[in-house]
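Give me structure tokens for this 369-residue protein.
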Amino acid sequence: MTLFAPAPRRRSRARTVGWAFVIGAVVLGLLASFLPSPYLIEVPGPVYNTIGTQRQGQGKDAKDVELIQIDGAETYPTGGALDMLTVGIQGDATNRPSWTSVIRALFSRSQAVIPASAVYPEGTTTEQVNQQDEADMRSSQQSAVAAALIHQGHDLPTELRVGTVQEGSAADGTIREGDVITAFDGEQLTENVDAGSLRAAVAEHGTSSPATVTLLRDGKREQVEVTPREEQGTPLLGVGVTERYDFPFDVKIALQDVGGPSAGMMFALGIIDELTPGELNGGKHVAGTGTITADGEVGPIGGIRQKLYGAKDAGATVFLAPADNCDEVVGHVPDGLDVYKVATLDQAVTDLETIAAGKSTAGLARCGS
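Here you go.
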């Protein structure tokens, strides 16, 4: 009879091992619910109609404020929507989503998991990133106003003022903070220009010879020579400039609590819509995203997939996307949303006029499928 005695012990051992696995899985699951990950989660953020209003203030003081406010020029009624889109970030420099949240986001079409370092590089704080986002938004708004008014035929006196000089850069010791750059190699940089105009001129010059930079310093005109240096494959002076425009009338953008540069194109379209008779969008619900330069170039942005879903949820049927983001769009377009790629403000206006008139869109460049 003792020959059969070990069998129960084997069953007991198997049962014990099984329970150990179950308990281990439960413990790991609980740990995953609480342990922070090294990632952040991008989700669709709030949507704002640039030709509409934003609720601002609290309690009895809350009121609807027009996002675009124009004083000193004739404006016209608008219709439909020209939505700008945002991306919400779950987590910050010190507080990260749990592993459970990260895993859940990996299976969501409207969310994306990104390394925390992509938003918060080592050594930066949440406050520093927020401050930079606010600065980017202010600069973007100025570029949007400039692009819209240039599109409308206005010539804008422009000042490119040096805000920073990178230590050890080509310009260090030659160009100073507070200098105003008025020309580069004889090309005037005083009308309808922005920081991109200076970067393009530097890139065209290259790094093989000194460039002549014309400055206003303490009210006096000076010329200095600087040889651009290549950094990450691009010739650079090593200066940061701020654009200051002399607008012919007042245009204020009153958006609050939103940062980053990606609303530039949609604000420019909203300003053009308010300054011209008729409805630029034909009364349709249009959304879009993209940075803008004063000369109307539309640049790529982050979080394009989340913005597509944000647009769809807000009721948009037309979406204008930067041409450089199209590769990220393919295969991720929500049903019922037509996505068109644009590279310039002029193209965006022309596309909207075609859509508004009810003409065939076969000739428009589509983005995604």
